[in-house]
Specification:
It is built from 19 helices and 19 strands. Helix 10 packs across helix 17 (434-446). The termini are far apart. The longest helix is centred in the last third of the chain and has 27 residues, at 370-396. A hairpin with a 3-residue loop joins strand 13 (254-259) and strand 14. The strands form six sheets. Strands 15-16-14-13-17-18-19 form a seven-stranded mixed β-sheet, sandwiched between helices. A four-stranded mixed β-sheet has the order 3-2-1-6. Strands 4-5 form a two-stranded antiparallel ribbon. By secondary structure, the protein is an alpha+beta fold. Helices cover 39% and strands 19% of the residues. The radius of gyration is 22 Å and the shape is globular. Bound molecules: beta-L-fructofuranose. Residues 80-82, 100, 238-240, 260-262, 264, 298 line the site of beta-L-fructofuranose. It is an enzyme of class 2 (transferase). Residues 255-445 form the Carbohydrate kinase FGGY C-terminal domain. Its EC number is 2.7.1.-. It comes from Blastococcus deserti.
C-alpha cells in the first residue's frame, strides 16, 4: 500500500509552491507539484500582497498535488511572517494585506515607543526591533476605516487556512512575530494590546503546531477535485519555524542560517533571552515548534542579490544567476563591504545604486562591475553570518560546533564556502526545501504517521535528505577578523 501523501503549501516573498511528500517511518520523499509567482502590487503609496492570486495558486497547487498523489492525507501552510488580513463582521476581507516592505509602517514606531518604551516592549514580547513588525503596522493604521470595521485579524497562513477550512485561529510560531505575544507566557499579551489601544477581539485563539485546524471545505474539494475528508493541520506556519524543524542537526550544538530572501541566523533554545544586551544586539525570540525558541537575528539576505538582478533585468543587463556567481567567484575577496542590514536596503528598488552609494559614503570605491556587486553582497552576508552566529552563541550560552545553512541559499556554493570561512566552522548546506520538509514532518506527526520529538524528526531528515559539507579554508580566519574590524558593527 502506498505511503500517505501530505501537501505542504510554502509561500515565499517571490514565489509560492505546493510540495507533495510521501512519508513513512523511514521515508521522506518530496516533490514539487506546483510553483507560482508571488508579485507584490503597488497602488499609490501602498505595497500589497495579491492574496487572492496567492490563494488561487494554492488551489491550483492542491489540484496538482491531488493528481500526483491520488489522495491527500493532509495539508499544512507556511509563509513569511508579520503580515495579515482583516475580516469584517461578515467575514469579508477588508482590503488587500499590506506588504512588510511598505515604508509607511515605520512611521508609527515613535508613537508605539511613546506608549511602551523599546526596552519594555522587548521584555514583554522578546522581539527584535523591525520597523514592520505587526505591532507597528497596526499602529500605523490606527483610526483608519478598515481597522475600525475589522472584527478579526488573521496572519497570512491563517487567512489561507481560514478560506480552506472556515476555521479562525492564530498559529503560535507566526503569532510570535507580531510583537503582541508575551514571550514568557506564550499567550497574547492583553496588557500590550490594551495599552496600544487595540481591540482584544481582533486576535483569534492561538493554535499550536500539530493541532488540527479543520478539514477542506466541500467547495474546496469540488474546486480542486480532491477526495475528502482532507485534514488541515497547523504547522510552524511561520516559514522560518518550519525551516528550523527542517534543519538536519544531529544534536543541539548547531547554529542555523535559514537562507532565502532573508537570512535568519541563530540557535534553537528552550527559553527566551530577554536581556538588555540581547535587545541591543537585535536578537529576537520567536517561537519554534515543540515549545522551542528561535533565538535569531534577521539579516537582509539574498534580497540584496534578487533585487540587484531585478534591476539588471530592467536595464537589459545579463542577470543569469550561475553566470553572475561564477564571475563573482573570480573577484578578489573583500573588494567592498556593506552592512547588509542598513535600512536603506529594505524597500524595493535599484539595489546596485544603493550599494554604490553606501560604498561612497564609507570611503570605498563602489563596485565597478556586476560581478563586483555580487561579490560585495556575498562577502557582506558571510561577514554578517560570522558576527551573528558568534553573538547568538555568546548571548545564549549555547556552544556551537557547526552551522546548518538551509533554504535556497544552500544551492549557492560560493556563499556556503564563504560562510564556512567566515564562521570558522563546518557548514552543512541543505536541504533547500527545509521549510516544506519541516511543514510535512509536523503534519505527519500530528496525524500519527511519525512520532517523537524534533531529534527523531531530524534523524529522518538525516537519513533521507542530502547535505553538502563545506569546511573552512585553512588560515582564512585572520583575513575575516581583519575585515570584521574594518567594517565596524553599527550596533
Ligand atoms: C522569511 C521571513 C522572516 C521574516 C520575514 C518577514 O521568509 O518569514 O523570518 O522576518 O520573512 O516576514
Amino acid at each position: 500500500q502506498a505511503l500517505p501523501a501530505f501537501a505542504a503549501v510554502d509561500l515565499g516573498a517571490s514565489s509560492g509552491r505546493v510540495m507533495v511528500a510521501r512519508v513513512g517511518p523511514d521515508v521522506l520523499e518530496l516533490t514539487e507539484a506546483h510553483r507560482f509567482p508571488n508579485r507584490p502590487v503597488r497602488t499609490g503609496d501602498a505595497l500589497h500582497w495579491d492574496v487572492l492570486g496567492l490563494y488561487a495558486g494554492v488551489l491550483d497547487g492542491l489540484r496538482a498535488a491531488g493528481r500526483e498523489a491520488g489522495r491527500l492525507a493532509g495539508v499544512g501552510i507556511d509563509s513569511w511572517a508579520v503580515d495579515y488580513g482583516l475580516l469584517d463582521a461578515d467575514g469579508a476581507l477588508l482590503g488587500n494585506p499590506l506588504h512588510y516592505r511598505d515604508g509607511r509602517h515605520a512611521t508609527a514606531v515613535p508613537a508605539v515607543h511613546a506608549a511602551v518604551g523599546p526596552d519594555e516592549l522587548y521584555r514583554l514580547s522578546g522581539l527584535q526591533h523591525l520597523p514592520f513588525n505587526t505591532v507597528f503596522q497596526l499602529a500605523a493604521r490606527r483610526g483608519s476605516v478598515q481597522l475600525g470595521a475589522a472584527r478579526r485579524l488573521l496572519l497570512v497562513p491563517d487567512l489561507l487556512a481560514h478560506w480552506l477550512t472556515g476555521a479562525e485561529g492564530a498559529e503560535v510560531t507566526n503569532a510570535s512575530t507580531t510583537g503582541l505575544l508575551d514571550a514568557t507566557s506564550r499567550e497574547w499579551s492583553w496588557e500590550l494590546i490594551e495599552r496600544l489601544g487595540l481591540p482584544r477581539g481582533l486576535f483569534p485563539p492561538l493554535v499550536r503546531p500539530g493541532d488540527r485546524v479543520g478539514e477542506l471545505r466541500v467547495d474546496v474539494l469540488e474546486e480542486t477535485g480532491l477526495a475528502g475528508p482532507v485534514p488541515v493541520t497547523a504547522v510552524g506556519s511561520h516559514d522560518t519555524a518550519s525551516a528550523v524543524v527542517g534543519v538536519p542537526a544531529a544534536d543541539d550544538r548547531f547554529a542555523y542560517v535559514s537562507c532565502g530572501t532573508w537570512s535568519l541566523v541563530g540557535v534553537e533554545l528552550d527559553k527566551p533571552v530577554l536581556t538588555e544586551e540581547s535587545r541591543a544586539a537585535g536578537f529576537t525570540n520567536e517561537l519554534g515548534v515543540d515549545g522551542t525558541v528561535r533565538y535569531l537575528r534577521n539579516v537582509m539576505g539574498l534580497w540584496l542579490l534578487q533585487e540587484s538582478q531585478r534591476t539588471w533585468v530592467a536595464h537589459g543587463l545579463p542577470s543569469d544567476l550561475p553566470d553572475l556567481l561564477a564571475a563573482a567567484a573570480r573577484v578578489p575577496a573583500f573588494t567592498t563591504l556593506v552592512d547588509p542590514d542598513d535600512p536603506r536596503f529594505l524597500p524595493p528598488g535599484d539595489m546596485p545604486a544603493r550599494i554604490a552609494a553606501y560604498c561612497l559614503e564609507t570611503g570605498q570605491t563602489p563596485p565597478q562591475s556586476q560581478a563586483e556587486t555580487v561579490r560585495c553582497i556575498l562577502d557582506s552576508l558571510a561577514l554578517a553570518y560570522r558576527r551573528n552566529v558568534r553573538r547568538a552563541a555568546q548571548l545564549s550560552g549555547r556552544s556551537v560546533e557547526n552551522v546548518h545553512l538551509v533554504g535556497g541559499g544552500a544551492r549557492n556554493a560560493l556563499l556556503c564556502q564563504l560562510t564556512a570561512d567566515a564562521c570558522g566552522l563546518p557548514v552543512l548546506a541543505g536541504p533547500v526545501e527545509a521549510a516544506a520538509l519541516g511543514n510535512v514532518l509536523v503534519q505527519a506527526r500530528g496525524l500519527g504517521v511519525l512520532s517523537g520529538g524534533l531529534p527523531e524528526l531530524r534523524a529522518l531528515l538525516r537519513a533521507t535528505q542530502d547535505a553538502q559539507l563545506y569546511l573552512p579554508t585553512r588560515d582564512a580566519e585572520a583575513a575575516w577578523a581583519a575585515e570584521e574590524a574594518r567594517l565596524p558593527d553599527p550596533r
